[in-house]
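Section 4.2 – Deliverable D4.2 (structural model, holo form)

The reporting period included a commitment to supply a predicted holo structure for the target in complex with zinc ion. Inputs used:
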Amino acid sequence: MAKPDPAAGLNGTRTGNICSGCNKGIQSGDLVRGYVTHYDRDGWVLRRLYCDSCGDTTIDRGTEDADEAIIEAVFWNHRLAGVTILDRNREESV
Ligand SMILES: [Zn+2]
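Output (structure tokens):
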């Protein structure tokens, strides 16, 4: 079963504005990175939000049976905009 595309699923997601790495406040218009996971029932969920200087661009650890991805987005008015996928642990053909 193909899962929904993370970029489409996460556009417009409301999020906090504090970087999980350095606790810096993120401003509207800043580039952010996020670690997102997909469990069967939840859809894509943003687990961690990072500023541009802290976020990983690749997935470096496994999560128990979750589909994971690293996203990049513009933080705008406490929402994610223009989400793109930097890395994903399970590439699924469309
Ligand atoms: Zn940071």
